[in-house]
Amino acid sequence: MLRDLAERPFVIGHRGASGYRPEHTEAAYLMAFALGADAIEPDLVATRDGVLVLRHENEISGTTDVASRAEFASRRTTREVDGRPLTGWFTEDFTWAELSTLRATERLGGIRQHSASFDGRYPILRFRDLLGLLDAATDESRRIIRLVAEFKHATHFAALGLPLEELFAAELSAAGWGRGDDRIVSESFEPGLLDRLVLAGVRGTRVLLIEDRGAPYDLVASDGSAAKRYDAFVSERGLLELGGIVHGVSVGKGRLVGGGRGAEAGAEVAPA
């Protein structure tokens, strides 16, 4: 798949058409399809009862109305997520039935004022809901619309007994997608999650996301201060080592232009 992308611009609807409607809602994804997106990119987190839902973070006060819901006031808590304390409301403290009562809000209301005018209209989506929307859009448009799935906080959820890769594989199978195919790109900042997708039998393209600094949290959790840093992954040696493990890397613009942090001069991406 990645070789095909070099032939023409490839447009990904990031969280749907998230500049026009609150992110990760049915309305945002339907608009992305209508605008001709080649792929859509959901972020995946889990509920307490093991349902994958579409949220950019597992802390949901910035993109839902949960903070205004009196019945959930007692769920506000402080958790350590990827080594940092965070206070709010977390998907893993709710069942899907409870989360389904919430309504989405625009995270950047001051900037995306038109999108914010739709606050409170749309419920949260499950991953299985999105697969249904994708199937319908593919049938209607008679073109292949790809899925670029980003797995969030995989180590955190695994410690809670919610392995994202297993939940993902089960959802694909239940939706009639088997174990996946070349329509699927799986992304994560944690290389261990990408390895576990292979063990779970999930097919498709695997992409390691590269932060501008620091180290993957799964490696920090296992290796502490000795964890391999993102800079090492994008060295010439690091890219060669990744060539047999993932199909590509995704880096921030700062690593590509303006003296990107940690990239070796002249280094090239190794073929997958």
Automatic annotation (TrEMBL):
Q: A Gene Ontology CC term for this entry?
A: periplasmic space
- Which PROSITE patterns does this entry report, sorted A to Z? GP_PDE
Annotated protein name in UniProt:
glycerophosphodiester phosphodiesterase
* Organism, as annotated: Agromyces binzhouensis
Give the UniProt keywords, A-Z.
Glycerol metabolism, Hydrolase, Signal
- Enzyme Commission code: 3.1.4.46
Question: Does the keyword section mention Signal?
Answer: yes
What SUPFAM superfamilies does the database record attribute to this sequence?
PLC-like phosphodiesterases
The cross-references to Gene3D superfamilies, in alphabetical order and at most eight, read: Phosphatidylinositol (PI) phosphodiesterase (3.20.20.190)
Q: Which residues form the GP-PDE domain?
A: 9-272
